[in-house]
Design brief:
Layout lengths: L2 H22 L8 H30 L6 H22 L4 H24 L1
């Protein structure tokens, strides 16, 4: 199994737990702007995670980037900024959904730093 897919699965678990906890319990305890921001954070994490999956599949399909820095950074910059935005927005949550969201956001940030750093 490629390492990218393993990393995707590792981040998918806390993301799914954050969504599940939010929909089951924590949704009733937040209202107004905080609720809007927290949902935006969860959506941002999900978008960054899907972008990472597409990045991993594309990298596998083309056989890697070699030393093509601009092509790697074209993928990693948007994903990193979306993940940072998600981290800031997820802080508005409550209880375990916030905890799982924070774990997911931090792991997503690390996942986007690794390809850029590896170059």
């Amino acid at each position: 199994m490629p390492i990218d897919i393993l990393l995707f699965i590792i981040v998918l678990l806390p993301t799914a737990l954050a969504w599940r906890r939010w929909l089951a319990v924590d949704q009733l305890s937040l209202a107004g702007t905080r609720k809007f921001f927290f949902i935006g954070g969860l959506v941002s994490i999900t978008i960054a995670l899907l972008e990472y999956l597409v990045f991993a599949v594309y990298t596998y399909h083309i056989g890697g980037f070699g030393t093509n820095f601009p092509a790697v950074f074209m993928w990693t910059r948007p994903g990193l900024w979306v993940s940072i935005l998600a981290l800031l927005l997820v802080l508005m949550g409550v209880s375990k959904s916030r905890l799982f969201g924070l774990i997911s956001a931090v792991l997503m940030i690390l996942m986007w730093i690794i390809p850029g750093w590896a170059m």
